[in-house]
Write the structure tokens for this entry.
Amino acid sequence: MSYQFFESAWYLGIIITGFFAILIVGFTMAMRRVRRLFSAGDRMSAWLTVGASAYTMVFFVGLCLALLILIVVQGNG
């Protein structure tokens, strides 16, 4: 096994960490907006925002897991 696997894993780890950070910040901002929408009585927009946020979160988590699995598979040869 060469050092290049560890180098690419390091860069990929930084990218994945960035995805998670952006995901958490975006989800927090969306949920703050949802709270305001619910309190204003706009329930349909609030539920659409929750659904879109949940779908996006699951998509990015799946993407990050796929990248991590790729690192492990490549590292094992």
Notes: The helical segments are 3-40, 43-76. Residues 3-40 form the longest helix (38 residues). The two ends are 8 Å apart (CA to CA). The chain has a mean pLDDT of 82.
